[in-house]
Amino acid sequence: MKKFALASLGIIAAIVAVANIGSIAALALSAAAVFFGLHYIRKSGSGFVRFLAGFVVVIGILSGISNIPAFIGLLAAAGAYYAWRTWKKEKRADDPIIDADPFTKFEKQWNEFTK
């Protein structure tokens, strides 16, 4: 039952993340606009360039705030990653431990090699 719920969570979250990939790209563009705007505010010496860069920052922030589906898509991508990571961890936990001593296998192979 746990694996079914985990698989359902992963599939639904992946579908939601893929459906919102466009809005996630738009959020990345608005974040880039904010980043470059702040960069030009710090580096410029002219007041007019600082004003334009500040305007770009404000537009980027407003664009990012208004992009609610991107935040839902990011949460869905995080949920899909969590489901995938948990599924892999459970799969790895099911594998039996062959030998606790790492040198045992090496010694067996060395003995076969030297014969």
What's the short story on this structure?
By secondary structure, the chain is mainly α. The protein has helices at 2-19, 21-43, 47-65, 68-94, 102-114. The termini are far apart.
Strand and helix map with partners:
Elements: H1 2-19, H2 21-43, H3 47-65, H4 68-94, H5 102-114
Helix pairs in contact: 1-4, 2-3, 2-4
Notes on the protein architecture:
- The protein has helices at residues 2-19, 21-43, 47-65, 68-94, 102-114.
- The protein is mostly helical.
- Helix 1 (2-19) packs antiparallel against helix 4 (68-94), helix 2 (21-43) runs antiparallel to helix 3 and helix 2 packs across helix 4 (68-94).
- The longest helix has 27 residues, at 68-94.
- The termini are far apart.
Task: Summarize the helix and strand pattern as letters.
Answer: HHHHH
Q: Which descriptor suits the 3D outline?
A: elongated
Q: Could you give a short account of the major beta sheet?
A: none
Supply the number of helical segments. Answer: 5
Share of helix, binned? over 70%
Low-confidence stretches: none
Q: Could you tell me the strand content as a percent range? A: under 5%
Distance between the termini: 51 Å
Oligomer: single chain
Structure classification: mainly alpha
What is the averaged pLDDT score?
86
What is the C-alpha radius of gyration, as a whole number of Å? 25 Å
* Number of DSSP E strands: 0
